[in-house]
Amino acid sequence: MTLPINEAHRINIPQLDMPPRTLLGPGPSNAHPRVLQAAGAPLVGHLDPAFVSLMDEVKELLRYTFQTDNELTIPISGTGSAAMEASLANTIETGDVVLVGIIGYFGERIAEMAGRYGADVRLLEQEWGKVFSLKELRAGLEKHRPAILALVHGETSSGACQPLEGVGELCREYDCLLLVDTVASLAGVPFYTDAWQVDIVYSGAQKCLSSPPGVSPLTLGPRAIEQIQNRKSKVANWYLDITLLMNYWGSNRVYHHTAPINLNYALREALRLVAEEGLAQRWARHRQTAELLWDGLAESGLSCYIPDPAIRLHSLTTVQVPDGVDAKNVAGRLLNEYNIEIAGGFGPLAGKVWRVGLMGYNSRRENVTLLIEAMRQIIN
Ligand SMILES: *Cc1c(COP(=O)(O)O)cnc(C)c1O
User: Fold this and answer.
1) How far is the CA of 231 from the centre of ligand 1 (A)?
2) How confident is the model at residue 1 (pLDDT cuts 50, 70, 90)?
3) pLDDT digits (tens, 9 = 90+) for 331-378
4) Residue pair 132/124 in contact by the 8 Å Cβ criterion
5) Whose CA is nearest to atom 8 of ligand 1?
6) CA distance 326 to 329
């Protein structure tokens, strides 16, 4: 006997037609047209020789982008938060002291995740919009003697960029691993994994790499790998277990989970664009576009939330909302009338700032002009 088909959810919907937004918020950024084109290439199997050689190319270009020789450099299947989780799940064992530097929301997320993997989480807190000095970091290491120090390089919630020169040396002195979140900064702001002696670094695809979200770069240095090899307990997350993942991404090519094939095509093209432009040129472009925005804001009577340009994140600027201006209304009108997305602040910065991202492909002079002109028309 055949059962009656429930037709209640069989809706008839039009063909997909998304609005042409200019994404100038904290992410995602618009994907480069070449990246979207690459993502549409025909599917192959995840063990197809053509995909296997793509995997090698992606790993090699990730090493360039991270500025590392680390063998273990792969894209994690999932968004930046999955790479964050992979970093923590693999390196933390129950009871390990993890010191998290908090300069905004994403530090809080690291602390929350580390706690779930059994870490004895200690916090080093800073007002949103500020960063830690080496002296403050040293004092934190001295007091807490952690197994891992976790920092966010580009804090998207506040627009601050944490200086990292000298932090790696400090961590070696205190015999702890250094973990850095570069989701909003990699390929937009100078970052040197090896020269800065960072042991664990992860990023995301949809910020300065301008690729769709869903695969996220991760690199682990020799000290982190040693820690993983000496684990007493199994990694509590099967999907993100590095040892299992390396059976697929390493030379064995053993099935673990099906890689998001087309997102890896997209990432390959995004990384090819990074290599074509060169990191020095790309970092300079992000800085110059940010400076153009800061100048344009000043000319329009608006100011940056962070007074010191030296610690402003080039890929994301927090703009002070003037008195009497409704931040949400302005962002809403930018979206509805100009197809421009920017974001408001949240947490302690709710209602106080807008967050303007000029990331990857979007870090261009014409986007600055477009945004400043639209904001002028709305605010005046
Ligand atoms: C966006 C972001 C994340 C999270 O990445 P998702 O791709 O949204 O999971 C983590 N850290 C920072 C600094 C970010 O900007």
Assistant:
1) 27
2) confident
3) 999 999 999 999 999 999 999 999 999 999 999 999 999 999 999 999
4) yes
5) 80
6) 5
